[in-house]
Input
Amino acid sequence: MSERHVVLGVTGSIAAYKAVDLASKLTQAGVSVHTVMTEAATQLVGPATFRAITGLPVSTSMFELTNPFSIEHISLSEVADLMIIAPATANVIAKMAAGIADDLLTCTALATRAPILIALAMHTAMWENAATQANLETLQSLGMSFVGPATGRLASGGFGAGRFAPVTEILGVALGMLGANGDLAGRKIVITAGGTREPIDPVRFLGNRSTGKMGFALAEAARDRGANVSLISGATTLPTPAGMNVHSVGTAAEMLDTVEAVSTDADILIMAAAVADYAPEMRASEKIKKEDVDLVLPLNRTQDILNTIRDVPIRVGFAAESENLIENAKGKLVSKNLDLIVANDISRSDSGIGADNNECTILDASGNQESLPLMPKREAAERILDRVVGLLSAK
Ligand SMILES: Cc1cc2nc3c(=O)[nH]c(=O)nc-3n(C[C@H](O)[C@H](O)[C@H](O)COP(=O)(O)O)c2cc1C
Output
C-alpha cells in the first residue's frame, strides 16, 4: 500500500472523531491519507488531529494558500487512488447526488476519476427519509460504493439504523478497493482459519488453541492483493474481516463440506485451520453426568481435507509440529501432493499457534526450503502469498 493515496473526506457528523481512527489505520497500512474536512466537520474535530495522525496537510477550504497543491480540488482529485467519505452526512450525499460542488470536499468528489467509498452516518429518521434514500440510489447508480450504515445505539440516545459502520469494516473494504489490481486480481482463493470443535455433549467439545490469526492474516493480505477471498473459519474471537465471503463452521466435517462446496472454481486453497484429527464417536444428546468411575471417550479419525480435495490448482498446507518439524512437513507435502507447506514449530510460545508472530519454513514440491525469521503474521502471510503468485505464473 506504500504508493497508494487516499483522499479522506470528513463531514459534519458526530462520528467524525471515528474518522481519526480510520485515518490512523490507513496510515499504519502504509497509505498516504490526504484529509479534506467540511466546515461542519471542523466544528466537531480539529484538523490538527488529522494532520498529526496522517503526517500530511489537512485541507479545509477551497481558497487556502498554505497547502502544496496548486488548484487544490483538482490536485487532490488527481492524486487519489480512492476517495473515502467517512463519515458522510445526509447533507453531503444530497449535494453529491445533485452534482453540487460548493466546497473543497464536494468539488474533489465531483472532479475525481478515482472510485468513491461512502460510509454513511446519520440519525435513523434522516436515513429513512425518502430524499436520503433517493440520493443513495442515485449515487449507487453512478457506481459509488457504500459501507453501512450499521444499526445500533445512536448519539442521540435512540437505537436504529444510521450508525457509522465499524472502522475495521470500512478499512477492510477500502484496502480491498485499493488492492483491486494487485497480483492476485481475478483469482479465487479459499482460506481456512481457526480451530474446529468436536462436540462431546451439548456443552462440551474437543478443541485446540488455534486463534485464527494466521488464516485471517492470509485472507486480509489476499483481499488487499485483489483476490476474491472465501474465508472458512472455525472457532475464533477475531472480528469478521470485511471485503470477503466469510463462512463460519464448527466441526471438521462441516469444514470439509464447506471447503468442498466453495472451492469448486477456486485457483488456490490454503488450509491454515487447525482441524481436529479425531472426533468423538458419539455426541451425547444430554449433558454427560459426573460418575464415580472414569469415562472412556471413543474417538474416530476425521477425514483429511487436503487429502480429499485435490483438484484445486494450487494447494497449500500448514504443518504444526512439536518435533521433527521439517521431516514431518516434508512427509505431508508429499503424501498430500501439495504445492507448498508452511512448517510451524509449535513448541515455542512466541511463534505459531495463538501468537501474533510466526517463524516458519516454506517448503515446495521441488524440494526448496525458505526459512522466514520471526515476523508479524501479516508479513508472513505476504511472503507465503509471494510464493503462491510465483507458482501461479509458473503454471
Ligand atoms: C453535534 C452534531 C452532530 C451531527 N451529526 C450528524 C450526523 O451524524 N449525520 C448527519 O447527516 N448530520 C449530522 N449533523 C448535521 C450536520 O452537521 C449538518 O447537516 C451540516 O450542514 C453538515 O454539513 P457537511 O455535510 O458540509 O459536513 C450533526 C450536527 C451536529 C451539530
Q: What stands out?
A: The pocket of flavin mononucleotide is lined by residues 11-15, 38, 40-41, 89-92, 121-122, 126 (CB under 6 Å). The radius of gyration is 24 Å. The domain at 188-394 is CATH 3.40.50.10300 (Rossmann fold).
